[in-house]
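Posting for a labmate who doesn't have an account.
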Amino acid sequence: MAELSTFWHRVQLITGVIAGTLVLLALVYQPGITDKELTELEKIQLRGYARILTLNSASTYYLDIEGPSGFEYQLGRWFSESIGVEAGFITVSQFSDLYTELLFGSGDLVAAGLSENESEYSSTVLYGPHYYQVQSQIVYRKGNVKRPDSIEEIIDANIHVIRGSSQAALLHKLKATYPDLIWTELDDIATEELIELVDSGEVDYIIADSHAIALQRRFFPELRIAFEPGQPRQLRWAYNQSTDDSLATAIDSFFRQIKEDGRLEQLIHRHYGQVAKFNYSDIQTFTKHVETRLPKYQSMFEKEAVEVGIDWRLLASIGYQESLWNPRAKSPTGVRGLMMLTRATAKQMKVKNRLDAEQSIGGGARYFASVLKRIPEHILEPDRTWLALASYNVGFGHVEDARIITETSGGDPDKWIDVKKSLPLLARKKWYKSTKYGFARGWEPVKYVENIRRYFEYLTVHEVKEKRDSGELDKLSPKEGLPIAPSL
């Protein structure tokens, strides 16, 4: 999917690059100036890219089939653009090395889900504004061990955490109260691998951050949250103390701006919104169908997706939401087939047999592509796709009504995060009586879109895992134009 973007974002990028270029020219042609006389920000601008230390994980930075991705990756790119440079990401293999690498000068800042007072080095660095709140959680696998309700119940249990993490620091603090408390700290491991250990039964309990657990728990439906030790933590970027505050000012200004213009809220919604309300019995069924049903139709989805220019995983996700990939599905209202086409839509898309899986997928693909074309061109991805999905479900006219309500209510009619709040209002007379297309069960397209988003992300991660396991992902090149620094 295309990355989040806004008109303001494009303007900021252009002005940031211009500003960075002017600073560079001024420094280069000013006689007598030395590196020691430059501010921290000017050094970065003179270099042309920011060195961002991070971790290779689902919640920070990772390489998927389309190139670099991740929550911290996007924040790092936005920040770099705001100061007129590119982003160079340096992945550190161990969490405990993030602070030492920063102190050694390997990077300009750390963007990896840090929080204050979590490390022995915390007092030696500075932190930017908080941008997301997380909570430590104790995870176990249902059926392997009994669910504990307190630390007392797992004092001598098989607990694993990542060395140098906030969870390790928390356990050291708890040991003052529970001197018999024992645990194991692991190096060179990501939260994803930690979760796999508890799911496989090799480990009884793990402690990790709530947002990282939420991203992975969808793929391990037998995992459960026992309880949440410690207090919530505010995630922040870290950077070295300096003789000037230019970098600190730039970071503060950046986070203030993305909070004010809504980009931070939308980024959080994009990465974590679809996992917060996931139905775990649903994912069990979905996982089973990915293994048993999808292989029969995947080549059809891929073929038709190429024909209309959309992602095959999105098309497959629509098909699953419509029929659970059942080519003989039928609703009480008469829609039929794998893509659940009405007679009228089937005729319009030249589908002769709705029960033929290949014809149904082709008709559904062409119909969705036609709906996508109706979405105003100025609306950017991924909002363009989410609004098209809502239109596919409830009708383009009703979505336009919801966009009008959104705008009159002070929201952004081009953002799904705002429009989805207005769609349910179409079922209330107070609102629909003044719309062009009238009443609609507006809560249904909201659920429809959010479900498809979850299925789509699951299929994306599933494909990345398969390619990584086969070694195929290693052959993929990062997106052009991105200075990706080597791992430390």
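Reply:
Got it, the structure tokens are right above this. The chain has three domains: 7-128+239-273, 136-231, 280-464.
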